[in-house]
C-alpha cells in the first residue's frame, strides 16, 4: 500500500484563476488565494436514516463498529507516529472551524478538538459510530458527503480527510465540495494510501504482489481505483487549490527496519494492513476473482509478515 499524503493550501487574496499547491513535509509558503463559494445554508444535523447498503463499498468491516474501533485505534496511532506525534501537517494557525470528512469513529476529530479548544470540529460520516459523549467543541453529522449537499453556516479553516481510498465513486466531487466549503486561505489535508507494494531490496512477496494486482485491477473495473491517491495532487490543482504539497513516504510493511521508529511503524502497519487486503479479496472473490485468489490468502499473509522481505507501502 502506498500512502501519499497530499495537502493543499489556498490563500487569502484569492485570485480564483490561480491555484497553487503545497506538499506536506517542507514548510509551506502561503500563496495564491482562491475565492471559495461560501455556503450560508444551515448546518447539517444528524439524522437516523440508515445509509444505503450499496454505499458501504469494498471495506464493509469499516462499518462494523467493533472491528472499526480496533482498526481505527491502531491506524490512528500509526498515523501519529508517522507524523511525529502531530495530527496533520497543514500549517493552520488557531483554526476556528474544522471539518473531518468521513470521520469514521471520530478518533481524529476528537483528538484534534481536545488539542485545539478554540476550534469547533465537525466530523461527518455515513454512520454514527462516534462516541455519544464527545467534547463540547466536537459534533458529528451523519451525511453522505458525496451524494448530499454540504450546507454549513460558515466556511472552514481546515478540512481533513484520512483513509478514504475506497470510499467514493467520485473523489474529485468531494474535493470540489471541500474547495467550496473552505475560506480563502484555508487548508485541505488528505492522508491516504496507495495499494501498491514496493520493496527495498531484491526479495519480493510474490503472493502479495499477485493479490494486490488482482484486487486493484478488479476495483478499477468497478470504477474504484485503489491507487488514485497518486493523482490527488493533480486533481486538487485542477480544482483550484494552491500551494499543493504532496508528501510521499515509503513505510515499512512490517518490522524489518533496524531504525527504532521505522520499525515501530512497520510493526503497526503489519497489523493494520492485512484486514483491508483480506476484505478486498473476499469482496472481489465473490465477484469473479475467486479463481485468482483461491488459496492465496495464507501465502499473501506470510509475505506481509516475512521480515526478510523488505516490503514498503508508499504513503
Ligand atoms: C477507513 S474509514 C476512515 C475513518 C477516519 N477517516 C480515520 O482515519 O480514522 C472510512 C470512512 O469513510 C466513511 N464513508 C465512506 N463513504 C462515505 C460517504 N459517501 N460519506 C461519508 N462517509 C463515508 C465510512 O463510513 C468510514 O467510516
Structural account:
- By secondary structure, the chain is an alpha/beta fold.
- Among the domains are: 60-192, Vaccinia Virus protein VP39 (Rossmann fold, 3-Layer(aba) Sandwich); 198-223 and 254-314, no CATH class.
- The chain has 8 helices and 10 strands.
- The chain has helices spanning 65-82, 107-115, 171-181, 206-221, 232-239, 260-272, 274-293, 297-305, and strands spanning 3-9, 21-22, 97-101, 120-125, 138-142, 156-162, 182-191, 198-199, 243-252, 311-314.
- Strands 1, 2, 3, 4, 5, 6, 7, 8, 9 and 10 form a 10-stranded mixed β-sheet that branches.
- Helix 3 packs across helix 5 (232-239) and helix 4 crosses helix 8.
- The longest helix is centred in the C-terminal third of the chain and has 20 residues, at 274-293.
- The structure holds S-adenosylmethionine.
- Residues 55, 62-63, 72, 75-76, 102-104, 107-108, 124-127, 144-146, 162-163, 167-168 line the site of S-adenosylmethionine.
- It comes from Metarhizium acridum (strain CQMa 102).
Amino acid at each position: 500500500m502506498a500512502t501519499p499524503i497530499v495537502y493543499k493550501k489556498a490563500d487569502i487574496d484569492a485570485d480564483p484563476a490561480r491555484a497553487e499547491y503545497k506538499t506536506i513535509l517542507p514548510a509551506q509558503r502561503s500563496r495564491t488565494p482562491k475565492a471559495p463559494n461560501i455556503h450560508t445554508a444551515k448546518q447539517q444535523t444528524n439524522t437516523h436514516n440508515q445509509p444505503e447498503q450499496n454505499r458501504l463499498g469494498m471495506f464493509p468491516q469499516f462499518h462494523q463498529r467493533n472491528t472499526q474501533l480496533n482498526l481505527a485505534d491502531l491506524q490512528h496511532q500509526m498515523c501519529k507516529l508517522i507524523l511525529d506525534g502531530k495530527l496533520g501537517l497543514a500549517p493552520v494557525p488557531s483554526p476556528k472551524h474544522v471539518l473531518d470528512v468521513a470521520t469514521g469513529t471520530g478518533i481524529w476529530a476528537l483528538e484534534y478538538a481536545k488539542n485545539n479548544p478554540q476550534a469547533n470540529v465537525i466530523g461527518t460520516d455515513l454512520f454514527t459510530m462516534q462516541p455519544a459523549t464527545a467534547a463540547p467543541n466536537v459534533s458529528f453529522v451523519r451525511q453522505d458527503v458525496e451524494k448530499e449537499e454540504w450546507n454549513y453556516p460558515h466556511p472552514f479553516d481546515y478540512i481533513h480527510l484520512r483513509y478514504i481510498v475506497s470510499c467514493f465513486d467520485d473523489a474529485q466531487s468531494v474535493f470540489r465540495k471541500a474547495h467550496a466549503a473552505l475560506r480563502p486561505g484555508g487548508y485541505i489535508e488528505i492522508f491516504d494510501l496507495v495499494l501498491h507494494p514496493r520493496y527495498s531490496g531484491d526479495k519480493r512477496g510474490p503472493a502479495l504482489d499477485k493479490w494486490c494486482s488482482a484486487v486493484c485491477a478488479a476495483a478499477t473495473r468497478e470504477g474504484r481505483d485503489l491507487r488514485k491517491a497518486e493523482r490527488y495532487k493533480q486533481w486538487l490543482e485542477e480544482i483550484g487549490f494552491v500551494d499543493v504539497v504532496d508528501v510521499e513516504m515509503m513505510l515499512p510493511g512490517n518490522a524489518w527496519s533496524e531504525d527504532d521508529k521505522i520499525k515501530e511503524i512497520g510493526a503497526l502497519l503489519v497489523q493494520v494492513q492485512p484486514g483491508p487486503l483480506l476484505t478486498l479479496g473476499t469482496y472481489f472473490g465473490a465477484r469473479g476473482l475467486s479463481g485468482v485468489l483461491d488459496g492465496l490468502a495464507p501465502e499473501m499473509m506470510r509475505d506481509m509478515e516475512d521480515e526478510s522481505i523488505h516490503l514498503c507501502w508508499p504513503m
